[in-house]
Amino acid sequence: MTDDPRPMLHARGVSKFFPGAVALDDVELKLYPGEVHALLGENGAGKSTLIKCLTGVYRRDGGVITLDGADIAPHSTLDSQKLGIGTVYQEVNLLPNLTVAENLFLGRQPTRLGLLARRRMVTEAREVLADYGLDIDPAEPLTSYSVAVQQVVAIARAVEMSGKVLILDEPTASLDRDEVQLLFSVIRTLKARGLAVVFITHFLDQVFDISDRATILRNGRVVGTRLLDGVSQTDIVTLMLGRQLEARVHDRAPRTLGDLLIEVDGLAKSGMLDPASLRIHKGEVVGLAGLLGSGRTETANLIFGAVPADQGRILREGHEIRVTNPREAVAQGFALCPEDRKTDGIVGDLSVRDNIVLALQARQGWWRPIPRAKVTEIAEHYVKALDIRLASLDMPIRLLSGGNQQKALLARWLATAPDFLILDEPTRGIDVGAHAEIIALIESLREQGMALLVASSELEELVAYSTRVIVLRDRRQVSELTGDAISTSNIIHAIADEPIQEAS
Amino acid sequence: MASTTTSTFRRILPQLVILGCALMLNVLVFPDFFRIEFQNGRLFGNLIDVLNRGAPVALLSIGMTLVIATRGIDLSVGAVMAIAGATAASLVVEGHGWVTALLGALAVGAICGAWNGLLVAILRIQPIVATLVLMVAGRGIAQLITEGTILTFLNPGLIRLGAGTIMGVPTPIILWIVLGAFAAFAVRRTALGLLIESIGVNQASSRLAGINARVLLISVYLVSGLCAALAGVIVAADIKGADANNAGLWLELDAILAVVIGGNSLLGGRFSIVASLLGALIIQSVNSVILLSGMPPEFNLVIKALLILAILVIQSPKVGHAVYMLRAAGPKAFDTRPAPAARPQKEQS
Ligand SMILES: Nc1ncnc2c1ncn2[C@@H]1O[C@H](COP(=O)(O)OP(=O)(O)OP(=O)(O)O)[C@@H](O)[C@H]1O
Ligand SMILES: [Mg+2]
Q1: B208/A75 touch (CB, cutoff 8 Å), yes or no
Q2: What is the sign of the dihedral through the CA atoms of B265, B267, B273 and B279?
Q3: Chain B closest-CA separation from residue A57 CA (Å)
Q4: Is A125 part of a structural domain of the chain?
Q5: Do B342 and A56 touch (CB under 8 A)?
Q6: Cα–Cα distance between B315 and B326 in angstroms, integer?
Q7: Whether residue A460 is found in the same domain as residue A386
Q8: CA-closest candidate to residue A349, choices B126, B114, B264
Q9: Which domains does chain B have, with CATH numbers?
Q10: Closest ligand to residue A52's CA
Q11: Which atom of ligand 1 sits closest to the CA of residue A42?
Q12: Model ipTM?
């Protein structure tokens, strides 16, 4: 298939400059019909920027793009859709106030006698989504569903739009294994139909699972294109990072538990979470495992007061404390790095610097501003410690690459020096190199005596750092694994103990 | 410190340039525009008039800037001016001193602001609707206070607030400059500015970062109410009477315009009070051009609209970008803005 003389899409010499940063430098990308092409690289390597240049979101500063032999220069997403390029951008870009069905069909709604055929639209939407294993009501507004569901809607929309090329920028970041498999079967169908698919992800297993070839970017340049049949994961990682990723041994042996710090007693909210109880000691990492919608995020949000609980109590060192909103939680030394970084995490128009000190400043109160020099010191410290790639501390945080935004949010909470840190999907969108570093960071925080509660859909990761894993199903705690019982297979087993109906 | 000074200067540069142009227009139609005289212990001159007449909108724009920074809007400020003016007038008519009248008016303004704040922050009503309530009801309330008449008064203390001078400078000028400087200083020397901008950009994120969004929201509407009350007292004092029907009429729109000319986005976020104050002065300078040119009054509003339109077009990002591209004079200019169709929509929550 790759010996097809004419690529479906061929980009040559694509360059893109931002003030203070060369995002793309003379990049070439060839996509053949019927291939799944992985686009790989570290956080900030330029993957998303390349996609945006191809699809007309950004005006490219140089280069030629041919689609099916003809030069193209799309100047908007709409334009590229008309050319047959469907795209899911990294940050889901749908209209939250519209319904699922409207989002799916926006711009090409089914009509009857020139009027919108609303009922037909809903039925069609239901059929389309069923292919992705989603059984939801398409007449509901998009916001009533989780990020994962929104992601699937975005994918379904892009698939419907793409006649020649489908581009997926980290589509699986918030999906479960099963949903990923469903997505892959859709991709395989499209591939058989002769579409070229671009797949961006930081999950190398998935890359090898679905892709035929890979182009690797580093600092805005192509460092190689490989047929995936002949190479190993290590080769790819070395290409991406420009160095070898040393294997880290997670010593799970010494488990000196500190004092009991947090005790959650029967915390619940109807319709969200059944009464949940857990105890977390200093120097302990409690993992939360479970499928989407199983109550992981809900548990985190209730403990942090992001959503007020309607029953139950929280004790800190044996004393009952009041946590009805995030402010009270922060005052108690709690911190929560939320799941959806775009809507609940970053304050997009503010600078990276301000975003990093935001929680600390909020806790200090408005009348005690952190001196500017100190702010810079804190921000610079975390930029270095977490290796956040940026052009300047003053750039709006929304201009950072996805993975770097995630790191900046982590920095925001580490800056408050919390006693109890809740992380909801801490490694979403983080590259392999940084992934290992974040796991190491979690371990070192634990060694320093911090109590952590980490919700994650990546089981290997949970296994690596958790001292205890709580498994949730259907908004309820179903089992708890400790010590040597913590293993991926045991977690999967606990999750799938009974046949489960996945609710959205 | 030096870098913040230059960045502040760069932020307000467009407004300074536009103000300069507006003042030059004044000189064109009236060459003596800049002449200032000192007579009977008071400064006189057209420039002084601009600063003096611009006081109500300048005061309103201080509060309005903060409200708009939180992605809100306060339509009620004109009506609150009327209520405050009526309150002050009725208090002195009843025989109270001017201090009582002033404090009473400010208290009423604070109550009005707090009411708006409650509707927005607690009941989560959209700001434009929430403040519309008081915009409509406010004049009725003012009429109840004045009992339907224009309530005139002679209390010299109160009148001095609008028509008097302090060391030769008309009191309203002193009031808005002092209050504006204080507000600009207060938001930047504390963390208030940062926190207000943060809730304006993304309220959900801000709340999760531990910011007390409710209290901040109520506070900005409260400040807006206070500013409106002071403006109302000045206007009433100037004409020595409270006119429930006409005091502050349409001024909410001028205040919003001042904020917009000040380059502040109606979508909230980064703001500059100084730039809004310059915006208020620009509006007053435009009013002054029309007045001094002696054009028939029928043209006033149309010409004002055209001039404002021109100012806004010059400031629009599209035009700014075109100018930038022209200056860069080559295809290799940086374009950091996504094309319109793909610009991420602001979530409305
Ligand atoms: N509009 C912009 N202005 C300035 N710099 C930008 C802008 N957009 C992106 N950048 C910079 O360009 C670089 C490439 O970003 P890009 O989003 O393409 O990375 P990425 O490979 O997708 O990373 P990730 O895996 O984290 O999503 C980053 O350093 C980013 O900070
Ligand atoms: Mg990206």
Answers
A1: no
A2: positive
A3: 5
A4: no
A5: yes
A6: 16
A7: no
A8: B264
A9: 11-295 (1.10.3470), 300-336 (no CATH)
A10: 1
A11: 25
A12: 0.84
